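Hi R.,

As promised on Friday, here is the backbone we talked about, encoded as structure tokens. Could you run it through your design pipeline when you get a chance and send me back a sequence?
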């Protein structure tokens, strides 16, 4: 297993719609291991394959806190079957949009079908943080970012900031306190 570089905004790869996984095999299981290792290293609680440049409908989540035993979940070809009418608001962040957080309103609960790491069909009813995380990561698979759920003004400011950071990185400017890569 290895840590993969994260794709960072404004990279257009993040807007790609990911393709369904055709078959679960050893190479796909290795990719899930790489994704988990990358997510833990970042550190984060969720990661979609597209965030490491793999346009596959696959994501990993682990909501265990730092002092808890890891509880990794692998979701292959996840599909939201049902969303609650009740809404909840969480402050979301994203490994592909480092150091930016915003409150996002989403359905409070979801029912999701998916294949597990062994290719077995599963279903989960999730609420709270797991529901939010699943929706956030499934959005990635559809080329949607959490900033698409905030006001256009805030979103435009974030995109402008990250475009400038990417431009500065390309030109070699590394001002103190500036996020690079």
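Update: got your reply. Pasting your designed sequence below so it's all in one thread:
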């Amino acid at each position: 297993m290895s840590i993969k570089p994260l794709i960072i905004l404004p990279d257009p790869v993040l807007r790609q719609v990911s393709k369904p996984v055709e078959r679960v095999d050893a190479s796909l299981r290795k990719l899930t291991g790489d994704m988990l290792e990358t997510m833990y290293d970042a550190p984060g609680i969720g990661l979609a394959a597209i965030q490491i440049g793999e346009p596959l409908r696959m994501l990993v989540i682990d909501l265990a806190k730092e002092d808890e035993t890891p509880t990794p979940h692998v979701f292959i070809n996840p599909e939201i079957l049902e969303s609650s009418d009740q809404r909840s608001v969480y402050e979301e962040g994203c490994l592909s949009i480092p150091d930016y957080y915003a409150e996002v309103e989403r359905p409070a609960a979801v029912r999701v079908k998916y294949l597990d790491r062994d290719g077995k069909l599963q279903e989960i009813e999730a609420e709270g943080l797991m529901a939010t995380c699943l929706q956030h990561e499934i959005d990635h698979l559809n080329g949607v970012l959490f900033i698409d759920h905030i006001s256009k003004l805030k979103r435009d400011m974030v995109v402008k900031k990250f475009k400038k950071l990417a431009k500065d990185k390309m030109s070699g400017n590394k001002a103190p306190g500036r996020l690079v890569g």
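One thing I noticed while checking it: The radius of gyration is 16 Å.

Thanks again,
M.
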